[in-house]
Amino acid sequence: MDAGSGFMHFNEKTNPIPQRIVHGTTIEIIWTIFPSIILMFIAIPSFALLYSMDEVVVDPAVTIKAIGHQWYWTYEYSDYNSSDEQSLTFDSYMIPEDDLELGQLRLLEVDNRVVVPAKTHLRMIITSADVLHSWAVPSLGVKCDAVPGRLNQTSILIQREGVYYGQCSEICGTNHAFMPIVVEAVNLPNYAQWVENQLCQQSN
């Protein structure tokens, strides 16, 4: 509104009863309500998508529990724990630089890899035994905090066989940089053979 029209609206001689609303009320109501309605229509499917992203697979084929320690990971394949004597649990430590073999990656190789079947729905349950950690494998699009006293879970579906590297992405102490994660995806027969070998080794 320019100065001239302002003088007209609020001049006692030309406009003895001043108008309470001097702007385009109708258009202002429209351009406030209409975008709000559009946002509501966008939000409804977005909320449904966000909710479904947090939902883990209802019936996963394999469940793996990852426990963060200072400074290594423990993995428990709880599907195969028939008793305390026979359980598939192992620790995964970083291989020191002096012990690396040709072709192995510095600060990323571990002595015990997480072996999983490819093209299979996996559930990861992640927690910590001491301080905050974070189980992160960027190439799988997975990052989940490991919180003491809390079980966080996420789902993974690896499409291709291969080796995927990650690290703890929470600053968890002096050796934070030395607790890598290695996930090896294999075909189903090789995975079954690996599980059988692990159970035989741990039962002996």
From TrEMBL:
The chain crosses the membrane at residues 29-51. This is Cytochrome c oxidase subunit 2. One of its GO terms (biological process) is ATP synthesis coupled electron transport. It is a multi-pass membrane protein. Its main location: membrane. It catalyses: 4 Fe(II)-[cytochrome c] + O2 + 8 H(+)(in) = 4 Fe(III)-[cytochrome c] + 2 H2O + 4 H(+)(out). Binds a copper A center. Residues 59-197 form the Cytochrome oxidase subunit II copper A binding domain. It comes from Rhynchospora tenuis. The lineage of its organism: Eukaryota, Viridiplantae, Streptophyta, Embryophyta, Tracheophyta.
